[in-house]
Amino acid sequence: MISVCMITYNGEKYVLAQVTSILSQLGKDDELVISDDGSSDRTLQILEGMKDDRIRLLTGKRFGNPTFNMENALANARGDVIIMSDQDDVWVENKVDIIKKYLIDFDYIVSDCYITDGNLNVIYNTRYIPEAGIAINKYAALFKPTPYQGSCAAFNRKVLDKALPFPPYIQSHDRWIGYIGSFFFKYALIPEKLIFYRRHGNNASTSSTGKSTNSFLQKLGYRFGYITALIKRSLRNG
């Protein structure tokens, strides 16, 4: 069973296209778990209007933070294969088939993607653009921009079980799950481009630009937090 985990917040502009691209690749026994963070636009009406039993819509909680909104979606996933998703991208049509093949040999994978503008016009044919400064080595990724973009990630159930619950002080679910997958399991950065990743005014982030406004001391503190959490998680059974 495949569980796609998505978080939403005021995503009415793009969510229909993304959900449509996902559902077209899922089987009748798979699920799309969507955790909404108190949307005030038409996001929920659009999702409910699709009337697809594979959609499990989680509402009623307010997180104010995408990391812990995603934790809620992941904690409710029932599948053996987990795929994370943003609300505003579009999947390449054979994404699920490619992921299933890789997860036979690996536990955690991250694909490449097309970076587009809000209208899906391709800006870059890869996310590994020089200005992003993405670290490939898992140790370097503790201190530099990581390759672990959540919307490009997929993993087996045992990775999720190791990652949950999230430490309360982490800043990014992408990083946390990426560190869990790369340090404790067999992982791969695969070359296939499996999503069209929209860059638009409402989703500007360090994951799409490789840049951060945090000070050096803030970054150092955040990294120390991740390292501490990884050490603690390594001592936990399961």
UniProtKB/TrEMBL annotation:
Q: Does the keyword Repeat apply?
A: no
Q: Which Pfam families match?
A: Glycos_transf_2
Q: Which domain of life is it from?
A: Bacteria
Q: Where is the Glycosyltransferase 2-like domain?
A: 3-162
Query: What GO annotations for molecular function exist for this entry?
Result: hexosyltransferase activity
SUPFAM superfamilies in the record, alphabetically? Answer: Nucleotide-diphospho-sugar transferases
Q: Supply the alphabetized keyword list.
A: Transferase
Q: What is this protein called?
A: Glycosyltransferase
Please report the organism this UniProt entry assigns to the protein: Sphingobacterium olei
